[in-house]
Design brief:
Rossmann fold, 357 residues, 21% helix, alpha+beta
Length: 357
């Protein structure tokens, strides 16, 4: 009987950074995820905050060694044949937990099997194994071709994750630049972006306009980026709250199809005294909701609205009195973030009897 094969590929993915509710920074990491039978492997696992060993911020020699490990070309392979598939995005230490699997040759084929969550030298497959995930059998030629292409191209070219802040060096932009750098995203402040060289403009993935930048200057900056052939995203007109701005910048820097993310949709509205968010997730995951608004004295306010596990599908979550029109809701998973303004609830459609009358 012929073996049944799984397809193997690689695609860019992100561990989203940000400013958390308590003010701590979460590190932004770009990496290559494993695409098996057209679906990211990370989405098949229980919600884990982890990145693959093929991270874009590794040095060339480390990146190459990780690729060769997956190719089973290392001089000292693990004695049990078990490799780290996803590790901690902050420190990559095994003590923080990692997803591991046995990678082995079977004739000309490559097999990944016995996936487990591991925090010690030996995993407990019965207790911490991922039931129903794998084994996966790949054609050796296809598997090696995907990984060897990375070596031939000199590694993984990371997406652009520098941000240009256009405006005066006022306190808000300075705090925003510091927060972005704290999450691992480069940020610079300028007032003369339109006069910058095209090569420099193409290094930015997003542009944020300060409140003092008029529409004429904004148009000139957009035109300069367009002339440079840049696909940077422009961010403007949000409430002056650093955590909220970082979340929207993270959302603008996301890449890849939306269906490859756990969090796929977010809307928020308020009807009278009740506020509600509609969240859609593609795979079971932990979702947190934060509310942001500016009070009457122009002070930023942050509210924890929800933090819990959600199953695939659409969910309606109560927001409470803190969420009102003019405020914002940020929904976050380990892999992506969405931002929505709280809008008034749409008017109810008349019933057929009322419409006929």
């Amino acid at each position: 009987m012929a073996a049944e094969y799984d397809t193997f590929g690689l695609a860019p993915a992100t561990r989203t950074g940000g400013v958390l509710a308590g003010g701590a920074y979460q590190l932004h990491r770009d990496f290559l995820d494993f695409i098996i039978d057209g679906r990211p492997l990370l989405l098949r696992l229980a919600d884990v905050d982890a990145v693959s060993p093929l991270a874009s911020d590794l040095g060339p020699s480390i990146f190459t060694s990780e690729v060769r490990r997956l190719l089973l070309e290392t001089d000292e392979p693990p004695a049990d044949g078990r490799f780290v598939i996803y590790g901690c995005p902050e420190c990559e230490g095994l003590e923080c937990g990692a997803v591991t699997a046995v990678i082995e040759r079977d004739g000309a084929d490559i097999v990944w099997r016995d996936f487990a969550w591991q925090t010690d030298t030996t995993p407990d497959l019965e207790r911490n194994g991922y039931a129903g995930v794998g084994p996966f059998r790949f054609r050796g030629e296809e598997y090696r071709g995907e990984l060897e292409r990375l070596l031939a191209e000199g590694g993984h070219e990371p997406p652009t994750r520098r941000v240009l802040l256009v405006g005066q060096r006022v306190a808000l932009l300075a705090r925003l630049a510091a927060a972005l750098r704290g999450t691992g995203i480069g940020a610079e402040i300028t007032r003369d972006a339109a006069g910058a060289h095209a090569d420099e403009l193409r290094t930015y993935g997003a542009v944020v306009f300060g409140q003092a930048v008029g529409e004429g200057e904004r148009a000139a900056v957009r035109a300069a980026f367009e002339a440079a052939g840049s696909d940077a995203v422009f961010v403007a007109d949000l409430a002056p709250i650093v955590g909220l701005l970082v979340a929207q910048i993270e959302e603008s820097l996301e890449h890849g199809p939306r269906e490859r993310h756990r969090l796929t949709r977010l809307t928020a509205h308020r009807d009278g005294r009740a506020g509600e968010a509609e969240v859609e997730v593609a795979a079971a995951c932990r979702v947190s909701l934060l509310g942001y608004r500016v009070d009457r004295l122009f002070r930023p306010r942050v509210y924890e609205l929800f933090d819990g596990q959600l199953e695939p599908g659409r969910h309606r979550l109560a927001l409470g009195p803190a969420a009102r029109p003019g405020s914002f809701v940020v929904a976050r998973t380990s892999g992506n973030v969405l931002v929505a303004a709280v809008a008034p609830a749409p008017p109810a459609l008349p019933s057929p009897q009322e419409d006929a009358g």
